[in-house]
Specification:
This protein has 8 helices and 4 strands; from the N terminus they run αααααβαββαβα. The protein has about 170 residues and is of the alpha/beta class. It has 2 domains: about 1-75, DNA polymerase, domain 1; about 85-165, Rossmann fold (3-Layer(aba) Sandwich), CATH 3.40.50.10190. The protein has a 4-stranded parallel β-sheet, with helices on both faces. About 20% of the residues are buried.
């Protein structure tokens, strides 16, 4: 869990960083979101990938004074950089898209593929849903490939992924 917030791991922390841009802004919004009908609460629920249960856990975290104190202590000890979108991301065909990787890739590790997708502005998810834009299918892909097919989600093989990620090997001429 990121900061000990239930349901908030690394991927969700990235979504929140991308959306709120700074720890100070996020914290201010979450404190304002304590009001049930607040704009800040509605704004949190608008973040792609944040559902009502997760939003309740995040807001609940900020409702606890000891959690806010831990954040204050942490901020005194570490430098938290504001989020800056990669310059190339806004022009990428993956910008704002949700992508899932399944199976093994030959050209790179799954971690490298996820990092590349995020650098190009994509949201990397761990499970396939109707909101998923692409599923990259590597060797020995499992149930995610079947679920993508059942939901009509666009699937890419590794070569198509590399081309989309602008990493395709140059053709010999």
């Amino acid at each position: 869990n990121a900061l000990g917030i239930p349901q908030v791991g690394q991927a969700t922390a990235r979504l929140l960083a991308r959306h709120y841009r700074s720890l100070a802004h996020w914290r201010g919004e979450m404190e304002a979101a304590q009001e049930p009908e607040s704009r800040a609460r509605a704004h949190l629920l608008d973040v792609h990938g944040i559902g009502a249960d997760m939003a309740a856990d995040i807001i609940g975290f900020f409702a606890e004074p000891h959690n806010r104190a831990v954040l204050d202590d942490l901020a005194r000890e570490v430098t938290v950089l504001d989020y800056e979108a990669p310059a190339q991301a806004s022009q990428s065909p993956l910008a704002g898209k949700t992508i899932v990787f399944t199976g093994g890739l030959e050209a790179m590790s799954r971690s490298e593929a996820k990092a590349r997708a995020e650098a190009l502005g994509a949201n990397v998810a761990s499970s396939v849903s109707a909101k998923t834009d692409y599923v990259v299918i590597g060797a020995d892909a499992g149930s995610k490939a079947a679920k993508a097919a059942a939901l009509g989600v666009t699937t890419l093989d590794e070569a198509a992924w590399l081309e989309l990620a602008e990493l395709a090997p140059a053709e010999a001429g």
